[in-house]
Amino acid sequence: MGSDTRPDARRAPADKDDVETLAAAVTGGDRRRLAQAITLIESTRDDHRNRAEALLERVSSKTGKSIRIGISGVPGVGKSTFIEAFGRHVTDLGHNIAVLAVDPSSKRSGGSILGDKTRMEHLSRNRNAFIRPSPAGATLGGVARRTRESILLCEAAGFDVVLVETVGVGQSETTVAEMTDFFLLMLLPGGGDELQGLKKGIVEIADMIVVNKADGALTETARRSASDYASALRLLRPASPNWTVPVITGSAKTGDGIAEVWEKIGAFRQALGESGELAARRSAQALDWMWAEVGDGLIAALKRDPGIAGALPVMEKSVASGLLPPTVAARRLISRFARP
Q1: What is the pLDDT of residues 266-305, one digit of tens each?
Q2: What is the CATH number of the domain that holds 67?
Q3: Between 147-156 and 31-42, two packed helices, what is the crossing angle to 10 degrees?
Q4: How far apart are CA 276 and CA 54, in angstroms?
Q5: Domains identified in the chain, total number
Q6: HSE (CB half, 13 Å, CA atoms) of 26?
Q7: Which residues span the domain enclosing 86?
Q8: Which residue pairs, CB below 8 angstroms and at least 24 apart, start in 294-302?
Q9: Which of 178, 211, 297, 305 sits between 20 and 30 A of 46, alpha carbons compared?
């Protein structure tokens, strides 16, 4: 089975499990152990974090060889259906694809609301595919907190195509573009609102735009929308000197556009690979990731600091009541934490 459907797939490996054994299983292509490894890195327990970091170090030499694809779009645009058709096309060509589908999370319970895997029924049974839904939780940008690590584990397991599907809640989902090589944006036919907001937000960072659901009565509307988007994009400064963003129509229902998307991704990889831009992007992403982790670690350490813990409730109350500006409170907390 391509996806992590077994009862113990969500269970992090027991403490007695050796990290070396887990690393060997992941790099050997064991899908069940890959699912457990992702569970391990998603855990917030300190002992699990230590083992997760050790695991990532051990598999690092096997990472970096895939094409990393981010995909986003408003709810209802048909991302999951498109991904299933795309995944089947890619696996038919002999590739192995891992899909990291980020589900929205309930504000009340924290649980995942939807399961994208249920909408990729055929792909989930494909032996050359692996689907892992993860809850977004409180993480902004439409991705899960440990999506970057999950990408590395999937690469270590031998997947040469890794696709990250975002939650799909609006124009703010730019984080996925900061952890993937190629960012595919899907839009609906007749999306005037997206066209009006073209100069800002998610549209201008896309490496490709697909106007989906271009079938039946919407075929001509989709073509007009694609033409409008293409014309508008020509007015913007290109994000890359080595790539012109293509705008096409597509339909997961008919299969139109699926092969063209893969062909464009190949052309993109070749163009940016030969120019060195793709390697530069990954290097910049790795550094941004490091500093993001440093920031998260410092905030966690600050909150645990005995000298801060006593002052924090009073400081928060003062800020909440408007007696103390947040910037002043932040500076005081940092000064107290940094004091020798």
Answers
A1: 999 999 999 999 999 999 999 998 998 899 889 989 988 9
A2: 3.40.50.300
A3: 160
A4: 30
A5: 2
A6: 31
A7: 63-275
A8: 301/337, 302/333, 302/334, 302/337
A9: 178
